[in-house]
Amino acid sequence: MPPGESEPPSDYLSRLSFRNARDGINRLCVDFGIDPFAVSRGDATALDEVAVLSGCDPDSLGVHAFKLLPKEKMAYRGQILTKASAPLAHVWICSACAEEDLGRWSFREEARLHRRGEWCLASIRTCAKHHQSLVRIGEINSATPKDTSSVMAPFATNLSAVRRRSVERAPSALESYVLARLDGTCRSTWLDAMPLYAAVQVCSMLGLVELHGASGRFSSLLDDGRRDCGAAGFAIASKGEYEIRNLLDRMQVAFRCPGSEWGPMRILGPLYKWLANPRLDDAFAPLVGVVRRHCVETLAIGAGETILGLTVSTRRVHSLNSASKEYGISKPTLRSILRAEGLVTPATDELPPYKVTFDASVAEPILRDACDTLNLEQTMEYLGVPTNSERAFLASALLPPWNPAGKGRLKDHVFRRRDVVAFAAKLRSHGRSRLKEDPALTDLPTTARLTQSTSVFIASLMLEGRLRRVAVRSGHPAWMSMLVDASEIRPLLRDPKSDYMSLRELSKLVGVDSRVVSALIRVGAMRSQIVAHPTQKRPTLFVSREELAKFQATYVKLGVLANELGSVGWKVRAKLSETGIEPAFDYEDIGVFLYRREDVALFAGAR
Q: Of 368, 473, 367, 481, which Cα lies nearest the Cα of 423?
């Protein structure tokens, strides 16, 4: 009796027993002194004994043997398998192949049916020849060494029962890949570096989380569900690390967790739990490396934490949660500062804190500064600026806020303490202590009243070096410690009528609302000065005509640009965006689309 198509030798020995009316592998082996376990292991001597008994070629038997290897592994057709990936005790058949077996030989029907070796693999559940699903017909008693024919023989006369349970379908991509590796015709993929059992398991686990998410469980899936997982996982793993990381990204986006209970185990579910097993086979190292790198590079994993057996040396990513805990900043304040600094986008506003992540190295200096900041009230108190001068102080930009109110949803101006301290030192550096007893010198608020000016304007003159008689006294905040001579300031009060414009005049010339003009001054697009009003003599905020000329030479409004190009605003904006040209300032900050002329020059020339 010749061996069947890709028939394992133990199955052949079982079938040989039925061919010779022994109806069981044990009876045949006892009669002829053959060790059935040695045959099952692919032992060469045992295979020779079977070949002599049946008159077949021993080499043809050995090709399809599942040869035992150390560490509970086995080799089949050049591929490494495990007991889990090749459960030999489970008997699956194809009804169409069985019909061909019955028609191929004329001897006893019970000895004609035989199992193909590839059907023993857990990853093969479809007959590639007939495009039919395999049907599980039974299980071999563990005490009986691979007596397959004892399970298959009853179906020789009842194939209709098998046929009814089978469905037509093509092999999945994973099944085709496994067969190609067995045949030695596999195309190159990322999986090729792994043993076959590892490649199949990787596909199954990736497919599980792809189809069922972080709550998926293999134990709840039937055979077809597991086959679907393998196919879905192969579509990902065959494309390598890039596609695997895309899957991990999707899982992070989909992850939802109450409170602060989060982490790789919660996000990646069964995939991470499986990879974190300390007894995991080294064959899975490629996937472990991909998942570990992705976790370290995309999740808020701190230095000293252990990810899949490796201790992280440097934090790569912070979340609002981790940064708030490390730097002691409240999450709402931290979110606003990071948004103002451009480290997080408005799209993250609705995300929970643990899902808002950013580059830890880029954010480090910002976070250090954010640890030691002052709001407007605290800054004015530290400097000693009177409450009635706060607005003028802000408008003068003598000390611009690190992040102004309204930017990044900040409710108050934020100043870095080191900037405030440096400004105070800068003020004091202009004074001479030897003049502090001069009765002609008065503090800034008093001098402002005497000159019908403002203390902010006087401070500006002092910082510009235009005042010679300046003293500094001790025991007072920086602003109140400065003493100046009112007689030195009066000649410097210029008539603003010819050289300066009010915000209302400026808004008409520029063609924008006065609130937009104020915003332009706040963001630094224009510089303003506070001088005495020409008639009322009260301190007033003005912008020089020279400053307006600089502004118009530097910037252009979207509407003006559209008119110059003979188009409409929304079309020009869309074209500029397509070419990578963005407004000079955030629309939310100033309320108008404003572009740098040098940025749009090439665009206008091209048209």
A: 481
> How many other CB atoms are there within 10 angstroms of residue 498's CB atom?
8
Helix (H) or strand (E) holding 555: strand 555-557
One-letter-per-residue 3-state SS of 225-238? HHHHHHHHHHHHHC
User: What does the alpha-carbon distance between residue 84 and residue 200 come to, in Å, rounded to a whole number?
Assistant: 11
Task: Write the CA distances from 376 to 322, 395, 477, integer angstroms.
Answer: 27, 13, 15
How many Å apart are CA 563 and CA 29, to the nearest integer?
A: 99
Q: Tell me: the pLDDT tens digits for 117-175? A: 999 999 999 999 999 999 999 988 766 667 888 889 888 888 898 999 999 999 999 99
Interior/surface letters 481-492, b for 16+ CB within 10 angstroms, e for the rest: bbbbbbebbeee
DSSP at 192: G
In whole angstroms, give the CA distance from residue 582 to residue 57: 77
Give the 3-state secondary structure of residue 510. helix
Domain ranges of the chain: 9-171, 174-311, 317-371, 374-492, 554-606
Residue type, 387: T
In terms of Cβ atoms closer than 10 Å to its own Cβ (0-12, 13-18, 19+), residue 468 is exposed
Asked whether 102 and 163 are in contact (CB, 8 A), the reply is: no
pTM: 0.68
Say if CB 383 and CB 478 are below 8 A apart: yes
Which pair of tokens denotes residue 346? 């408005």
